[in-house]
Design brief:
The chain has 423 residues and is mainly α. 86% of the residues lie in helices and 0% in strands. It starts with a helix and ends with a helix.
């Protein structure tokens, strides 16, 4: 009843152009998530097929220098060319990647690796530009209602997108699924351009202009973070959440690769698994976010979510089953994309324009993916530790260690890794 009243009040009190802006922004959120659901399942499956799950930590490490270059490029050119041309540029690069990968992914050496890296960066860049535009347009009071709506509609797009790999991978092949995404890029560009035009002409609450027209560097974005307590707080949130998520990501992909070795079947499984996760997102975004934020508040929500995830991970430590692993991994993904993401986005609203765009780009693109490097170092270290233990103790004839073999040692390493996640 309360949510219905808020919904009706918004559409009664807002102007026609505010409704148009919201509709176009909702369309952007829907299309970005729809495309991301297809590309994520495809790129993950292609990468594991080409290199194996063991190579995932090295790909996450490679994201560090690539993230640095992309963020530096973004901060240097966005004051010059503006949001739409930057948005168009990143979309064009992705379209070229998708077409080439659809036909030559295994013919061009290193293409599955490069496509996997760009997929992560592209999705974050698109979301960064969408949410930055929203943060510069929507008030704090409207955000409590509208941010949940934006994430909810995006969740519906993700659910719709999950059907393509979930039910078409074995019919047309994993690679050809990338061709399905091409029409969505065109619709996305039109929606984003329309939202910018409506905002700039009719809803200019604050101009999306920068104090300096000279190019901004990565270091200047980092300085903005150092001067803002809110940005520092957001940075720490992103680091801890991503380290935990990455460790679970590796463990999930490891178990999945061992159970499903066929590429197209693995793509279908990923599509259906993330379809369930995205469906949970939709429920939380439409029905959970508004009530949680109003009854618990932003601060209590920030404390509650890590406690809940810690409880699941502690259970995984003592009961290491694939079902509980899937529940833990799905939960951290669902919460990160819904309630936790909403309360994090609300922290950006009171910031200055430079902090919303340039400082935010450093966090949402560079730090968000660089945090994976910390988890990757842990995973690689555990791998070397496992190999050392096997070579040092695993060949002792008649010993208990030899009887357990590599599988037993691997279980020890997994348990130790999981304890790090829980911490």
């Amino acid at each position: 009843m309360m949510l219905t009243r808020v919904f009706s009040d918004f559409f009664i009190k807002t102007s026609f152009y505010q409704k148009v802006f919201v509709a176009l922004a909702l369309s952007c959120s829907f299309l970005i998530n729809l495309e991301a659901s297809i590309t994520k399942a495809v790129s993950n499956s292609l990468f594991i097929h080409a290199y194996g799950y063991e190579f995932l930590p090295y790909a996450w490490l490679a994201l560090v220098p690539l993230n640095f270059l992309v963020v530096n490029f973004y901060n240097k050119f966005i004051p010059r060319i503006g949001l739409f041309y930057m948005f168009s540029c990143t979309t064009f690069i992705t379209v070229v990647f998708s077409i080439v990968a659809a036909f030559f992914v295994f013919d061009v050496q290193g293409l599955p690796f490069c496509f996997y890296l760009w997929k992560d960066i592209y999705i974050l860049l698109m979301f960064q530009q969408l949410w930055a535009m929203l943060a510069a347009t929507i008030s704090s009071d409207q955000a409590k209602f509208l941010y949940g709506l934006f994430w909810g509609v995006g969740g519906i797009g993700a659910v719709v997108g999950s059907f393509f790999p979930g039910f078409m991978a074995t019919l047309i092949g994993t690679e050809k699924l990338l061709l399905v995404t091409l029409p969505f890029y065109g619709l996305l560009l039109l929606s984003y351009l329309g939202a910018l035009k409506v905002r700039n002409i009719h809803l200019a609450k604050e101009p999306i202009e920068f104090d300096q027209k000279k190019p901004s560097s990565f270091l200047e974005g980092a300085k903005l973070i150092g001067k803002s307590k809110i940005l520092l707080f957001i940075l720490l949130i992103v680091i801890f959440m991503q380290v935990a998520s990455t460790l679970l990501d590796f463990q999930f992909n490891r178990t999945l690769a061992e159970h499903i070795s066929q590429k197209d079947l693995r793509t279908e499984y990923l599509g259906r698994f993330f379809g369930i996760v995205n469906g949970t997102n939709v429920f939380l975004q439409f029905f959970g976010s508004y009530f949680v934020l109003n009854f618990m508040g932003v601060k209590r929500t920030h404390f509650f979510i890590p406690l809940y995830l810690g409880f699941l991970l502690t259970g995984q430590l003592f009961f290491p089953t694939f079902l509980l692993l899937s529940l833990s991994y799905g939960s951290i993904k669902a919460l990160d994309y819904s309630i936790f993401g909403i309360v994090r986005e609300m922290l950006y609203i009171p910031l200055r324009v430079e902090e919303k765009f340039q400082g935010r780009a450093v966090i949402d693109v560079f730090v968000y993916r660089t945090a994976k490097a910390l988890a990757s170092c842990c995973i690689i270290s555990f791998g070397f530790l496992s190999a050392f233990c096997i070579s040092r103790y695993g060949s002792t004839p008649g010993s208990e260690r030899d009887h357990r073999g590599k599988a037993g040692l691997d279980d020890d390493i997994i348990a130790l890794r999981q304890s790090i996640v829980t911490f």
